[in-house]
């Protein structure tokens, strides 16, 4: 499906961005309730497992009978139906978090966010950004059913993991801060727990003087035949406030070719629920369209951050 998506776009970024229809129902998955997902719902990631299409995401709010503070936590829902502008879900685990923050001194004691789920050895491995004691790092939780998870612990320094299986190993792209912006790095693991760098240099960075010159963030990986594809956020002005998504492809996850018509997707109109910034592009294929789930904010960090899950679609032909 990813090759077909690649071929939809030409060399004109304006035409590419305008080819998408942003859902009039955005945010399609809003913050709700009065507890752990009452403030934000964000960071979508989608996998197929156990005959179901599962959506992993981040919620932010105050969970009853805890420390009374807002934290990011992870949840999961089953996707029951997707159309070009709507999604229907069934919350799993009773609508409660599947991965919670740790204790005050834990590596993930403040926030658990940015899930990346991958099926490996008949289990679901969820990697996530862990904020707590020590440097920001990637944590891991593992499940046999995709719903009930056990934490493994801290895996490596970094943020916003994107995991995929290649040749029986898990490869992970993650971001590290460098010179005021993020760059993407690549590591691999034979057991999903112990990772080694594939390269000690960034594998992907922006183009000087372009839309992604300063920072590359929140990548999502897909495989189509022998090729790998990546959707990612880019910014020319702040480290983590992208307003466009780009598309790239690779044969080995190490060497990447950017689409000549990048960026291929942009924020919604000013004042819309996704008009301020966008992150984490998760692609879903339907019979007639490619549907993009992503985190959108109507405003900026400095004045109206409002992260919720939005949707856009593009016809296949």
UniProtKB/TrEMBL annotation:
Stated name of the protein: Glycosyl hydrolase family 32 N-terminal domain-containing protein
Source organism: Paenibacillus glycinis
């Amino acid at each position: 499906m990813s090759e077909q998506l690649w071929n939809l776009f030409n060399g004109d970024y304006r035409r590419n961005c305008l080819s998408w229809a942003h859902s009039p129902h955005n945010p399609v998955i809003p913050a709700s309730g009065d507890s752990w997902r009452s403030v934000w719902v964000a960071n979508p990631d989608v996998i197929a497992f156990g005959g179901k299409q599962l959506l992993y995401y981040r919620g932010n709010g105050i969970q009853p009978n805890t420390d009374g503070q807002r934290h990011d936590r992870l949840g999961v829902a089953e996707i029951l139906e997707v159309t070009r502008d709507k999604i229907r879900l069934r919350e799993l685990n009773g609508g409660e978090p599947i991965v919670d923050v740790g204790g005050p001194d834990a590596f993930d004691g403040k926030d658990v966010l940015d899930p990346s789920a991958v099926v490996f050895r008949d289990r679901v491995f969820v990697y996530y950004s862990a904020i707590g004691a020590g440097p920001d790092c990637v944590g891991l939780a593992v499940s046999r059913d995709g719903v009930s998870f056990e934490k493994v612990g801290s895996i490596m320094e970094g943020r916003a993991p994107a995991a995929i299986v290649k040749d029986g190993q898990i490869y992970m792209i993650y971001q590290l801060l460098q010179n005021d912006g993020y760059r993407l790095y690549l590591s691999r693991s034979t057991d999903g727990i112990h990772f080694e760098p594939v390269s000690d240099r960034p594998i992907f960075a922006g183009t000087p003087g372009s839309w992604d010159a300063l920072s590359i963030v929140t990548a999502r990986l897909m495989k189509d035949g022998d090729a790998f594809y990546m959707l990612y956020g880019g910014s020319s002005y702040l480290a983590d406030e992208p307003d466009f998504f780009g598309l790239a492809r690779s044969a080995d996850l190490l060497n990447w070719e950017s689409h000549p018509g990048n960026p291929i997707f942009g924020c919604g109109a000013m004042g819309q629920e996704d008009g301020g910034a966008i992150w984490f592009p998760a692609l879903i294929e339907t019979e007639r369209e490619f549907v993009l789930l992503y985190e959108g904010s109507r405003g900026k960090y400095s004045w109206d951050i409002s992260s919720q899950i939005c949707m856009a679609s593009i016809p296949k032909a």
